[in-house]
Write a structure and sequence with these properties.
This protein has about 900 residues and is of the alpha/beta class. Helices cover about 45% and strands about 15% of the residues. The longest helix has 21 residues, at about 440-460.
């Protein structure tokens, strides 16, 4: 009855009770899994108050969840899961970038993009910042590589608006906030004051708290709040930081920002052993190193075969260790001092080889890629059906080397052969990564024995922290008392009882009397499909997914598939919803792979499942169309005028006559994509030159003439077939087109330039689908996207005659995957005074023609970006794919055109 009653209290469309929805939210990035009774997509503080009231009346627990990238099991529940991601994305930069106001659903990286023009950023810098949300950053007191202790959320907090389980709402920025807090919550306020008095009356406990928070520590509640603050409201708002959603709901936060230091000097230092590497930490830190990332030999070995890694990594002795050091400063004029300090310090170290320091942004990115590749390297080679576990501990820096060696011994002792250790050495904060199956009791017991020894070493031997930045969660809740002692732990229990006396807010997390809690509700990872078996369910992919606010994300698609493999009964129940939720509304744009630590393209699975659902007749029709694509083009052109009676935003048919070009003297072949040959101007678009005319004109103007082959009609990149799962039709289409390229380019002598980025990407990645002969031809062809061709071959030869005031750009998915957004921006920057890529720009979800079949996908995918474009008062809006431009025009209400129109306008004599 409870869940049905909930749907009467909140919009039933935002109360999800179908099995497929509940399974989709049953996992976070941890090794725990709980199926919620319902998922509520909460909207506004009033609904949070309603949910608290419902929870108390029905005795059903509540858990708040933002991105679900939590690594310790904080964001799963078998009660009501309250999703605070999609309707809580407010962010506002204040006081010239010195402060920022955020809601829990805004992604940390998005906040930093908003702050970038002010040369500022938020203090916390977790590795997951491009995926995790502010709700989790605050609730877990996240830190990162440079954050340390001083710049975490606790220390950069200015104010909070929070909701208590009682329904009380407090904005701590209000001058009367403390008076209101004490008046409305007298029991809580007095209880906090009493706890503060007890701590101050116990010098030993107070000193213990100061010591624990002199280094990274996210185990238990932030007891330092009782030493740092006096007013109950100030104490409580800082207790909320790191409370993992167990004390109240953070509706909004104002944070002080920190300077973004753009000048960087980065080097990889290799040492004979861990002791030598750890001995270098303090000198490097004292010399100003902002980041010091320690890597043991196993960690270095895990990435030594990756592209861009130094060849010397393969030759290191078994005892070797590395430090990735980065020095940073604000002004270019200080670079010399920065470099001098770094090199002087390094000169006194005992290194295996000369340091590889660089100030090149490209080389720095390559070095950080070495560090970033360690976690996914383990995930990518793990045995199917196992989980990847990344733990997070802190040791005194002075004893770091001994601690690492003891951890390595533990891995051997307990049979974890592929374990690696790396981490933020400047803070003594180490991560270790292992792979683990939970398919039987023997495996669970193996993990239990390892964790017992880890706790013993960290707490008893080194007096360290069991969590430095990942939060206590379910997996360390049983050990909070072991780390803090009974007196401090009793105070933490009182904090929980004061704020949540019914223990209904994220119970079992952080405070848990069950000594075996970390071994319950463990997530089994059944093998499903080869395309996605490597998924570690981290959720990094979700920010890139256009369907994330409509149906399922890539992670959720995989979670659902795994549940189907676990339970035949569940599979039957979810099958009716699976087609629309997982297949029809997947844009197969592949952007998920660009954010995935192990490179999974969930779109590949979608294409295969679509293929398997097509009948033999459907595949036959698709092959026929691929073989007669010129007829398809003609029919499409004829159908457009008719279709405009039903869909007014359909473009008119492109002009049948192509612009005149000459083969003789041409410096490149121009391949107009089929969408350029079929789709003309939009309803409100100027009736001027066609896209093909513009491209030919600009190329001629630059003295780089191109020619359009006379028999270009009927050739296709194959993407319309492959995206729908018609693989054999795709093979026919791309082989025919590559044969044409071979002929038109004079056997590879001339470049082929494609004017639609999705088509370029489809052609650049088609080699596996070609015949052996066409593969040989492909290898001798140079296929260029028009963006690269225009930026590198046309723009330098053109004279800018006029510049627009302000333009917005939308880099399409394929352009991102080809690494070309910066080149599109370079063209726009040459042609306009101000260029903006909206902070929320991502996949538009139009996906070729899917935007016509499922317009709700495009509407959902572009909602935030469209709002940013409408608020920006731009002169024009540009992209590099006609179908994406249709979707963006529909979303924003302003015509989006090819960037080539901007280039032509700017260079017109």
């Amino acid at each position: 009855m409870g869940v049905e009653l909930l749907a009467r209290m909140i919009d039933p469309e935002r109360v999800l009770t179908r099995l497929i929805d509940r399974i989709a939210y049953a996992s976070d990035a941890s090794v725990y899994r709980l199926i919620p009774r319902a998922v509520v997509l909460a909207h506004g503080v009033e609904e949070i108050q309603t949910l608290f009231r419902f929870s108390h009346e029905q005795r059903i627990p509540l858990t708040f969840r933002a991105a679900g990238t939590s690594l310790s099991g904080q964001a799963v529940t078998d009660g009501i899961l309250v999703e605070v991601a999609r309707h809580w994305r407010g962010v506002r930069v204040e006081d010239g970038g010195r402060r920022v106001r955020v809601q829990p659903g805004v992604i940390g990286g998005h906040v930093n993009r908003m702050l970038a023009p002010y040369r500022a950023r938020i203090g916390p810098d977790p590795a997951s910042i491009q995926a995790c949300m502010m709700g989790g950053i605050l609730a877990n007191n996240s830190s990162g590589m440079c954050c340390g202790v001083a710049q975490n959320a606790y220390h950069t907090l200015r104010s909070l608006t929070f909701v208590l389980p009682s329904g009380t709402v407090i904005d701590t920025a209000d001058a009367e906030a403390d008076a209101a807090f004490c008046a409305r919550e007298p029991g809580l306020a007095v209880g906090l004051s009493n706890l503060r008095s007890e701590i101050h009356a116990s010098p030993a406990l107070a000193e213990r708290i100061r010591f624990k928070y002199s280094t990274k520590n996210t185990v238990g509640y932030s007891l330092n709040a009782f030493l740092d603050y006096e007013r109950p409201v100030d104490i409580f708002q800082h207790l909320l930081i790191g409370s993992e959603g167990t004390l109240g709901f953070i509706a909004e936060a104002v944070l002080d920002t920190v300077p973004d230091l753009p000048v960087k000097y980065t080097g990889l230092l290799l040492f004979h052993d861990l002791h030598a590497a750890c001995a270098a930490i303090v000198p490097l830190r004292d010399a100003g190193a902002r980041a010091l990332e320690l890597m043991d030999r196993a960690a270095l070995r895990s990435v030594e075969n990756q592209l861009g890694c130094p060849a010397s990594l393969k030759l290191l002795p078994e005892s070797a260790a590395g430090l990735l050091a980065e020095f940073q400063c604000a002004d270019e004029k200080d670079r010399y001092r920065l470099e001098e300090s770094a090199l002087q310090t390094v000169s006194g170290l005992q290194l295996l080889e000369p340091p590889q320091f660089t100030h090149s942004a490209t080389d720095q990115a390559a070095l950080w890629k070495v560090r970033a590749g360690m976690f996914p390297s383990v995930g990518s080679v793990r045995r199917s059906g196992t989980s990847v576990i990344i733990e997070d501990v802190v040791f005194p820096v002075s004893r770091l080397a001994d601690a690492v060696l003891e951890l390595e011994h533990l891995f051997v002792k307990h049979g974890y052969q592929n374990a690696i250790i790396f981490g933020h050495a400047k803070d003594g904060n180490l991560h270790f990564v292992i792979t683990q199956s939970f398919g039987n009791q023997k495996s669970v017991d193996q993990y239990a024995r390892l964790m017992e020894d880890v706790v013993r070493i960290v707490v008893e031997r080194y007096d360290g922290s069991l969590k430095g930045e990942h939060g206590t969660g379910r997996n360390m809740a049983p050990f909070v008392e072991a780390e803090w002692g009974s007196e401090a732990y009793a105070m933490m229990k009182r904090v929980k009882e004061l704020a949540d006396p019914e223990n209904l807010l994220n119970p079992s997390v952080l405070i848990n009397a069950d000594p075996m809690a970390h071994l319950r509700d463990l997530k089994q990872m059944p093998s499903v499909e080869s395309e996605v078996d490597k998924c570690i369910e981290c959720g990094f992919c979700e920010v890139r997914c256009p369907s994330r606010d409509l149906t399922l994300t890539p992670r959720q698609r995989i979670v659902v598939r795994r549940e189907m493999a676990r339970s035949a009964e569940s599979a039957v129940e979810m099958e009716a919803d699976f087609g629309y939720m997982a297949l029809d509304t997947c844009a197969v744009d592949g952007l998920c792979a660009t954010a995935c630590p192990v490179g999974i393209d969930t779109g590949a699975l979608t294409k295969r499942l679509r293929r398997e659902r097509h009948s033999a007749m459907a595949h036959g029709v698709a092959r026929f169309l691929a073989n007669h694509f010129e007829v398809v083009e003609r029919c499409a052109r004829l159908a457009l005028p008719i279709g405009r009676f039903w869909k007014a935003d359909l473009p008119v048919a492109a002009r049948a006559r192509y612009p005149h070009t000459e083969r003789d003297g041409a410096q490149a072949v121009y391949f107009p994509a089929c969408i350029s040959r079929v789709l003309g101007r939009l309803r409100d678009e100027p009736d001027d030159m066609s896209l093909m005319e513009v491209f030919v004109e600009v190329a001629a103007r630059a003295g780089v003439p191109v020619f359009i082959p006379g028999n270009v009609r009927g050739n296709c990149c194959g993407v319309p077939f492959s995206s729908k799962g018609y693989d054999r039709a795709h093979v026919l289409a791309v082989n025919r087109t590559i044969e044409g390229f071979w002929e038109w380019s004079d056997q590879g002598r001339l470049s082929i330039v494609v004017d639609a980025s999705p088509c370029t990407y489809g052609l650049l990645t088609c080699r596996p689908h070609l015949s052996p002969e066409n593969q040989s031809r492909f290898d001798r062809l140079q296929i260029l996207d028009s963006v690269r061709f225009a930026n590198r071959h046309l723009l330098p030869r053109l004279t800018i005659e006029r510049r627009m005031e302000s333009v917005a750009l939308h880099p399409v998915c394929s352009l991102i995957k080809m690494g070309l957004p910066s080149e599109l921006e370079a063209i726009a920057a040459a042609c306009s005074e101000k260029v903006t890529v909206p902070p929320s720009a991502g996949c538009c979800g139009f996906a070729g023609d899917r935007g016509y079949s499922f317009p709700e996908l495009t509407a959902s995918a572009t909602r935030q970006e469209a709002a940013e474009v409408r608020a920006g008062a731009f002169d024009s809006h540009y992209s590099s794919s006609r179908t994406c431009e249709i979707g963006l025009t529909r979303a924003t209400g302003s015509v989006c055109r090819s960037y080539l129109y901007l280039l032509e306008h700017a260079t017109r004599p």
